[in-house]
Amino acid sequence: MRPLSIEGAWVRTPRVHRDDRGSFHEWFKEPEFTGATGRTPVLAQANCSVSRRGTLRGVHFSDVPPGQAKYVTCVRGAVLDVVVDLRTGSPTYRAWEAVPLDEDERNAVYLSEGLGHAFMALTDDATVVYLCSTGYQPLREHGIHPLDPALGIDWPADLPPLLSPKDAAAPTLEEAERRGLLPSYEECARHRATVREGSAA
Fold first, then answer.
1. pLDDT at 195
2. Does residue 23 contact residue 3 with C-beta atoms inside 8 Å?
3. pLDDT at 200 (0 to 100)
4. Coil, strand, or helix at residue 86?
5. Would you identify the CATH topology of the domain 2-165?
């Protein structure tokens, strides 16, 4: 697993074995994950999202603690997956990094608690599956408008974005910060340290 430019996020590029029958790859390996992140993975929920071309989901994040860490891959079609640093006080606050996920390369992205997550479907029936460290808790879930100019995410210009009503009504980053919705870098660091200590116990 290779760390991304935003601390607390990694990308994994597996070796894909192909022959005339199809392909095989290991999309998750616990020893590699633990060695890279310093924590034992916790699985509370597994999600599957199918999207038409142009669908834009996110930017989503959860209150920390407990937050929600995610391990994400695309098993059909292609998406542009984006990690956004929403942690106030972080050295890379407001920064984002995009990682193409598709059915050919089979990359996977892991993002720690407190980081924002979004993706745009580049194909029809783009199918994204992700493992979550905590279950869905509506009162702890939040969003930032994915087209907020303050973030300046470079979404594909040739695709008109299709947003859900909830994502279209999400606040800007400035509004979310003013309302105290964003996690702090310090709180996220404390939470990750607690999780690591629990993993080592």
1. 84
2. no
3. 62
4. coil
5. Jelly Rolls (2.60.120)
